[in-house]
Amino acid sequence: MHGFFYGWYFKCQSDTQTLAVIPAVHNAGSRRACSIQMITDDDAWTVTFSADEFQRSGRKILIGENRFGEKGIQMDISTPQLTVRGKLDFGPLCPLKYDIMGPFAFVPFMECRHSVWSMRHAVRGKVSVNGREYSFRNAQGYWEGDQGRSFPEKYIWTQCFFSGGSLMLSVADIPMAGFHFTGITGVILWRGKEYRIATYLGARVIRIQNGMVRVIQGNLELDVRLIKASARSLRAPANGDMVRTIRESAACQAFYRFRKKGRTLFAFETDRASFESEYFS
Questions:
Q1: Which of 28, 196, 277, 278 is most buried when burial is the number of CB atoms within 10 A of its CB?
Q2: Across the chain, which distance is largest between two alpha carbons, in Å?
Q3: How many CB atoms lie within 10 A of CB 168?
Q4: Comparing C-alpha atoms, which of 18, 20, 1, 2 is closest to residue 10?
């Protein structure tokens, strides 16, 4: 059996706290397991479960006593390193107009396929993590997923909420049929309008260096720059086995600028950005 993984990423964020949870199942040959990873502003944890504790039904995942889906998250974990209990309820989701992968959704044998289930939704509830309470009221949530064999070897990913919108950008080195190309998937929600930036729409990387990315597509231009990381270690799949270590900042300093026809629609610096930079880092 070839290696395979399937996982979801739930980010919940208030003005002062950030909590991201990643339930996943992974196969590596005859080895099959599932896991829950958690990352906050200050720390990160990984808890591994036996494969038979994983269940999936449509847009619902169950791992042991932990439940994840479009209505929210309910968690109950007790290990020597991590104790988590609580429930978070989600408001109506904000899905994309169509699959983030576009026509690549129909291409077989891709190393990794990305999904975006909600760009922005309300989060309400409380979760206790090792005795620290994460309380969300009028908070915001983001939900995406990945499946395939491995994460890209080189990539930059970022997500951020901001006044009037939400954005996500992923730039990755994509292997396909013996050659490599730079794949771009991104979405900007701005004042009720969805702007899609993607390779299949003609997007190109103009610059990528030291946590900075500039992407253009027609008359659209997006600049992203990591200013100061607060990275924590997470596990990522390599041929279905969770043996790779990546580093994510759940809430860090970053700069974003979005332009159309040479006019700046927004430009801001924030300390609430989420960022992974595995590109020539």
A1: 277
A2: 55
A3: 22
A4: 20
Q: Tokens 């026809």 label which residue?
A: 261
CA separation, residue 243 to residues 38, 74, 82, 158 (Å): 17, 27, 20, 22
Angle at 257 between CA 9 and CA 142, to 5 degrees: 15
Distance of CA 57 to the CA centre of its chain: 21
Q: What is the dihedral of CA 277, 113, 106, 181, to 10 degrees?
A: 30
- Closest by Cα among 166, 172, 162, 161 to 198: 172
The full DSSP string for 92-136 is S----SS-TTGGGGG-TT-SEEEEEEEEEEEEEEEEEETTEEEEE
pLDDT, one tens digit per residue, over 117-158 is 999 999 999 999 999 999 999 899 999 999 999 998 899 999
C-beta of residue 49 within 8 angstroms of C-beta of residue 64: yes
Is the confidence at residue 281, as pLDDT, over 70? no
d(CA 206, CA 75): 42
